[in-house]
Amino acid sequence: MSGAELRETHVGIVVLIGDRAYKMKKPVRTGFLDFSTLELRREALRRELELNRRLSPDVYLGISDVSAARPDGEPAEVAEHLLVMRRMPADRRLATLLATGEDISGPLRDLARLVARFHAGAERGPAVNAQGTREALRNRWQDNVVETRAILGAPLDDAAIEHIERLAMRFVDGRGPLFDRRIADDRIVDGHGDLIADDVFLLDDGPRVLDCLEFDDRLRYLDALDDVAFLAMDLERLGAPHRAAEFLDAYVAFSGDPAPSALRHHYTAYRAFVRAKVACLRHAQGDAAAAAAAVEYAEVARRHLERGAVRLALVGGLPGTGKTTVAGGLADRFGAVVLSSDRIRKELAGIDPTARAGAAYREGLYRAEHTEALYRELLDRAGELLARGESVILDASWTSALHRQEAEKLAKDTHSELIQLECRTSTEVAAQRLRSRPVGSSDATAQIAAQMAVAADEWPDAVILSTSGTVEESLRHATSVWQAATHEGFDRQATGERRGGASLHSGNGT
After folding, report:
1. CA-CA distance, 367 to 400, in Å (whole number)?
2. Are 108 and 250 in contact (CB under 8 A)?
3. What average pLDDT does the segment 17-40 reach?
């Protein structure tokens, strides 16, 4: 660490000598900062010292004056100010450790604990909360999209930017209650604002985090999950998605953050798109290598927006067609919430969900008024979950076109992706499943299933999911539909069979 080094950016200079680093601001003025006078540069260094001591007090040591001697013997004048820092060992930089393949599971967990503790004590208040609203996030997305589109010769094509913008706006527009809850729960903080792997050092006595964003307070006022998502995005970009997930999981555990996984994906995407914009700017300034970086960052943004898109899935079909199995399997794969019509019907009636309540078709608990109340409750509960960022799977027969129209309206109102799956198998297979099914919340029989088939409305918008084969085959097909739902112009016929035959049990088997 003894050798001297000089590093320069467009706004500053860092001199590394021995175990110290000396940082100086250049006398520049840009659209977002002003270091044009000595006083402004000293104030900027003072603010940087104050803010960074929140996370690494033993690294940021103080401010030193550089004086210029005067030939007339008068007292020397201060010519410049320097931020004095403890020099960090380059081989303990997080980005370097990732490249060398060192096992950093423990130190990464320590880092998550440090940041969670920092966020717990971070400044909060009305000015901070103002940057955590849905409107503020929407404006930041729009600004970044507009600025990226305006860059001449940007390596991102219009279709890629449009896809990212559409998914980002759909998430933000439909999640008002989620962002309101984040503010009410004090999750908006004066954070770090620029958490990347190059500025994190994993030392034997614990992690050190450097270089927070100091030139604009509003850019540091953000959701705590947004703050850590920046580093998760950077870890993924550096080829370590498992480390990104590991870090976020640990942070959530230490902070007790109840955010849905969709919000993690969204903030990761936002940070990636900001970096894509910056890479486009570098490319426009003559950095040819930045083109690949821009495309890579945009791909990270796209991937997370698709994963984090909120979905409303209707998994329907007649009794015995396997819809409950499919619904549960999808929920396990994608972390969605399942709402079961069989259970909720009995909850509404004050009956134990596992108790028998058998009756003839459309009699007893299955009379029309009970069924109407059931679907209202299903959609009401789903609406609350969707607005909070949770994907929802509704396990019901969905034989009524009217009920499906109401679900479609809910998806539209909450800007959620609508998935419609109709499970099918042969009449014989369904009847055998109903006979051998253990006691549970469903009371359907083969006779009731036949009567339902006669009365059921056609479901032309559903992907037909044959469940005559193995569970894994059915789930593989359902998974492809789930993943394709974020594509604009999503076509059920691109992912499923065309409807054929008169019987709703007429699946051909796979």
Report:
1. 14
2. yes
3. 91
In this structure, is residue 382 part of a structural domain?
Answer: yes
Q: For residues 88 and 59, is the Cβ–Cβ distance under 8 A?
A: yes
Q: Which two tokens stand for residue 192?
A: 């770090």
The tokens for 218 are: 């509003």
Which of 93, 90, 97, 111 shows the shortest CA–CA distance to 19? 90
Q: Which domain holds residue 31?
A: 5-86
- Planar angle of CA 381, 495, 342, nearest 5 degrees: 30
d(CA 276, CA 431): 55
Of how many residues is the chain composed? 510
SS3 content of the chain, % helix, strand, coil (to 5): 50, 15, 35
pLDDT tens track for 330-345 = 999 999 999 999 999 9
- Distance CA(272)–CA(297), nearest Å, equals 5
Please check whether residue 509 lies inside any domain of the structure. no
Q: What is the pTM of this model?
A: 0.90
Number of folded domains that form the chain: 3
Of the residues 308, 339, 369, which one is the last residue of a structural domain? 308
What does the alpha-carbon distance between residue 247 and residue 26 come to, in Å, rounded to a whole number? 35
Residue 410: inside a domain: yes
Report the C-alpha gap between 343 and 460 in whole angstroms. 27
How does residue 304 score in pLDDT terms, banded at 50, 70 and 90?
A: very high
For 353-473, list the strands marked E by DSSP.
392-395, 417-424, 463-466
CATH number reported for the structural domain that contains residue 343 in this entry: 3.40.50.300
